Task: structure prediction
Amino acid sequence: MMKNATLLFGLALAAFTLPTGLQAQEAFGLKQQNLDNPENTPKPVFPVPSARQLKWNETEFYAFFHYGMNTYTNAEWGDGSEDNATFNPTAAPNPRQWLEAAQKAGMKGGIAVVKHHDGFCLWPTKTTDHHVGNSGTTYGSETNIPRDFAKAAEELDMKYGFYVSPWDLNSAYWGEKDAEGNYTDNYTKKVFFEQCAELAAYGNKQFEMWFDGATGGDHRGYYGGANALRTIDNAQTYYDIPNLRDSIHNSCPDIILWGVGGEARWIGNEAGWAGETNWAMGDREYGNENGWQWHPGESDAKGTSHGWFWHEGESVKSAETLFKMYLETVGRNATLILNLPPDKSGSLPAATVTRMEELGALMTQRLGTDLAPAATVTASETRTAGRTVSYAAQNVTDGNKDTYWATNDGTIQASLTFTWDEPQVVRYVSMMEFIKLGQRVKKFTIETSEDGVNFTPRATNIAQTTIGYKRIIPLNGNTSNSYGDGFRAKALRITINDSKACPLLHTVSIY
Result:
């Protein structure tokens, strides 16, 4: 028995020491594993997002609620001199109603404005007398929007955050200079940092703290009675943003500091659209392919016809218009924060609630039934599997954001083909890159085939360039009238024509 064992061991050792050892392994059905990279994981293409940036991107579509002193003065920007008693809700403000309406529209969260440029705080802060607790009005004195908003969001399992204006037209400290003409740090230390800390205490599950970029200029402010024009030279320095960011992250690790925080960018307009080509690096609508910092875009847009705050006589944009915004933001590698202003009662008007229900119905009708999981998926190339990881084409339909299809290193052109036993009517294609390892795709095409043999390019008038976190292509090429009659397809093919490195897609959905 010992002799047989020795003989077997000797034969095995010989097989591994022959010049054709690799062929010998393959003959035995074994794989040569890279000891430094046993899973054959693709190398990242830098920059890459942080864990909190990934979670933020996954929120995708959320609401903005502009409510405060301006609701009662019919203004967009107050000057900070408003009497506290002007804040006089006709009923108890109802943040839960706000969030319920947003949820019906398919939104995953919301951000409440709790302090605008006028400096009036919608919670009983210790940093100023300009707050709800001093309103002296029946419902105003009992208002605490951060408390009630956070509680409602957690009960509804929605993400939440707060807008707190760094610019404060009420505070005597804002823009204050000493005798030598240098800015003091009184505002930052005594007011702004303290307000952010108070807000962070309203729950460590917050996903975003929203900082407007306004820095004074030609808007005259009260400033504690100075009634002056003030401005600051550099918001990053004046507000000590690096220190603020670290402090907030210690309390709320998932918060993204939007705007001056440098973790997410303004998409560059307030009209609800991002560039068809949109990199998660760089600035404004289109980003920059060669940007050095991961800086994903958020598009802020008004859901109503007038300003950011509620105004008498305003109307709500149609569900079709709002769906178009969704396609042109979330569907173009950005997030969409849609403003829905509560009225003087502290609740959303009935027309807004109804419109959100209509939008939710459109979302369900158009993007609610994914045809991809029922298809057979094949790839022109699949990356060599790792020790426990597969990069198969089927990963794009398994519903798991942590698995993905990939090609081998050096392959930047490849295709995925989806086929069904019977033709399907298709209208939209949604693609998601595995951005944990960076944004890669630079050019792609989509084709459909009614017979499974002959293919026709679709949406050729749309720039089929970047994908990023998510890209949604209406196959008729029209975001204004995207639903249409659709196309009968027994097969649909996505071809990656150019990529920074081997392409990685974790989900493809077909509607």
Q: What stands out?
A: Residues 1-32 have pLDDT under 50 and may be disordered. Residues 350-367 form the longest helix (18 residues).
